[in-house]
Amino acid sequence: MKNKSLAFPVLFLLSLILPILSPAQSWEVVDLQGKLKTRALYERIELLSESVLVGKTDSSLYLLSADLRPMVNLQGTKIQRYLEPWILVEGPQGIGAFHEYGQAALPLEYEEIETYFNILLARKGNSYWIYQKGTGKTISLGQLDHAKITHHGMVITRKNGSYFLPLSADPCRPYLSLQENDGNFLLAKEQSGFGLINREGNYVMDPILDELEHTQGDYFYGRDENQYLLVRGDELQAQVNYNSYHQITKEGDLMLEYIHGKLRRIMEKGGILLDVVGMEQVDLIEKGLYFVRFRDQKTGLIGSKGWLVNPQSDAEWIGKGSEGMFPARKNGKIGFITSDGAWVIEPQFDETLGFAEGAAVVQKNGSWQLISKEGHLLGISNWQEIKPVNKGIAIAKASNEHFLIDQSGNKLTSIGYEKICRLSNGLFITENQGNRGLLDRSGTVLFPTEFESIQPENEDFILVSKEGKSGVISSNGEVIFPLDYLEIILDWSRNQVLLKSKYEPVILIPEEPTTRKKKKGV
Predict the structure, then answer these.
(1) Strand ranges across the sheet with 385-386
(2) pTM for this one?
């Protein structure tokens, strides 16, 4: 008869342990050559940055060391966001914050948290708090209508229609308006007028102007009684770079000065871009680029450093150019002119994407084509769409399929794909019916379109997944890690790879005791 006295307690213990371990996954950390460094059990691991690893078990969330040891219990159930250097963690009671080094900053009890490098702004209902990393203290701002952190780290609050700067030297001073912009200075308004405030909350231009409007960067356009001003912000004292009693108009990013009612100057930032008699019309093409028409109907294109196309053209419009070729329109059609204003390709096209690597993408009669700098057709002329040439290759579409073509218009791929996506390393992801493949720079198929995802890190390390399993393959087909893992995380900063597989516990069945008779005297 078998002896079950030892087997029963072992199996009983396993029945208690297995429910705890069963949802977990086994993670291996290996170097780039596949040598095992360590193992760990986690339900999920996230690589938030080069230095921040987070692991989740059934009941806890941890900040991990490089070898996956738990260092700090993050006290929540999931990562809401990682905004360097802050980790926002969500739990049953709300959102909290930890510094990426592990320091607990805010408990998990808030509805919303905004971050800056050394500041956190937390909200619960209509109540707000500020946490400052330098002091490690949390300050209550009380109940507010609204509060926010600007892109350069200032805190603005609003209550009962007034605005405040709670971190300034005068936190109770009310403002009629505080406007953030892409520069480093707030545009402030008080009863006395408009002014500028620096990051410390101090005025660098007193609030005395009748008008003040941001233009770009640290530059502003203003008016004081009958005087127009162009102002540059400065941390100590804002500078008036240009002032005039002649009218300066501002429409969007376009500023023009009129003298005795006639257009005379194009203004930019803090001064004069163009001062010339005879201008009739100025159109902003894009920031820092202007199309100019004169009274004699000659036109040109000017940028921040001077004329790009001399004002000798008869074009009705001139756009941003490249490779010395500028798209221009006349009588409703588009051609190309050079910097001296001469037509080198007569206007005959409906649209263009401009020149790149000696070839221009143009549309004519509803079809897209490539042309040379001499205006000659390159390849076929009936594409539905063509993307600009990049490193000798363009992506073109015909009959709702995408192909690779070279800068001469020749097809590099014989078959078409639903989608082709160019990668920064020069490779191309293909897609058909939700599956993905990979092409090299010449259009050669590296991987057929049969994978769920493809992530080329480089040509020798391509992460792929298929049928729910992941692996790593090189571009020549060599298997680096077989297609056997549930997930693979590449940790380049530590030159290691994290491999996830289903945890399968090893159950040891104890040997049954022998039934041999004992010798007398033993």
Answers:
(1) 385-386, 393-398, 401-406
(2) 0.84
Q: Decide if 355 contacts 366 (C-beta within 8 A).
A: no
Peptide bond into 85 cis (omega under 30): yes
Q: Which residues are registered as beta bridge partners of 194?
A: 189, 209
Tell me the domain boundaries of the chain.
176-275, 350-415, 417-504
Choose among 379, 378, 349, 352: nearest CA to 365: 349
How far is Cα 123 from Cα 52, in angstroms, rounded to an integer? 26
Contacts 24+ apart (CB under 8 A), 7-12: 7/509, 7/510, 7/512, 10/508, 10/509, 10/510
Chain-centroid distance of CA 273 in Å reads: 32
Beta bridge partners of 485: 470
192's tokens: 């006395």
Distance CA 316, CA 332 (A): 9
What end-to-end distance do the CA atoms of the chain give, in Å? 23
Domain at 350-415, CATH from 3.10.450, 2.40.10, 3.30.160, 1.10.287:
2.40.10
Look at residues 316, 354, 319, 311 and name the one whose alpha carbon lies nearest to residue 333: 316
For 262, residues 6+ apart whose C-beta sits below 8 A from its C-beta are none
Residue closest to 59 by CA, chosen among 43, 48, 47:
43
Block residue for tokens 């257009």: 263
By the 10 Å C-beta count (0-12 exposed, 13-18 middle, 19+ buried), 120 is classed as buried
Cα dihedral sign, 258-262-267-273: negative
CA separation for the pair 196, 185 (Å, rounded)? 6
Structure tokens at 71: 């260092």
Residue range 414-422: mean pLDDT, rounded: 96
pLDDT in tens, 277-325: 999 999 999 999 999 999 999 999 999 999 999 999 999 999 999 999 9
Nearest Cα to 321, choosing from 346, 304, 338, 333? Answer: 338
Q: How many CB atoms lie within 10 A of CB 186?
A: 26
d(CA 220, CA 213) in angstroms, rounded, equals 6
Compute the C-alpha angle 322/327/329, nearest 5°: 170
- Please give the pLDDT value at position 25: 85
